[in-house]
Amino acid sequence: MAESTKNGIPNVVTIAGIDPSGGAGVLADVKAMSACGAYACGVVAALTAQNTKDVTGVSPVSPDFLRDQIDTLFSDVRIDAVKIGMLGTYRTD
Predict the structure, then answer these.
(1) How confident is the model over 15-68, as pLDDT tens digits?
(2) Reading across the β-sheet that carries 11-18, which strands appear in turn?
């Protein structure tokens, strides 16, 4: 990872779904990135209804809102690395 900030902490973003149980997706990525010493940011690409055993629903985030999240974050925080996970799908039909 690139050391880019004055204190040497890299800024990393995860673009992924949300697992409310914290075992996967943005929440798990943020925990792992933080444990590795990175400043972790998250962009939510899909919402899930799930627990540690089952996924009962998925709701993708619209491409326009996904773009808004990324553009807003990148306008303020210099990102040194990107991790992409579940993106979901978006259908208009």
Answers:
(1) 999 999 999 999 999 999 999 999 999 999 999 999 999 999 999 999 999 999
(2) 55-60, 39-50, 11-18, 81-84
Neighbours of 83 (CB within 10 A): 16
Contacts 24+ apart (CB under 8 A), 29-37: 29/83, 29/85, 33/83, 37/9, 37/10
Which 8-state DSSP code applies to residue 87?
A: -
**CB-CB contact of 24 with 33 (8 Å):** no
Secondary structure letter of residue 9 according to DSSP: P
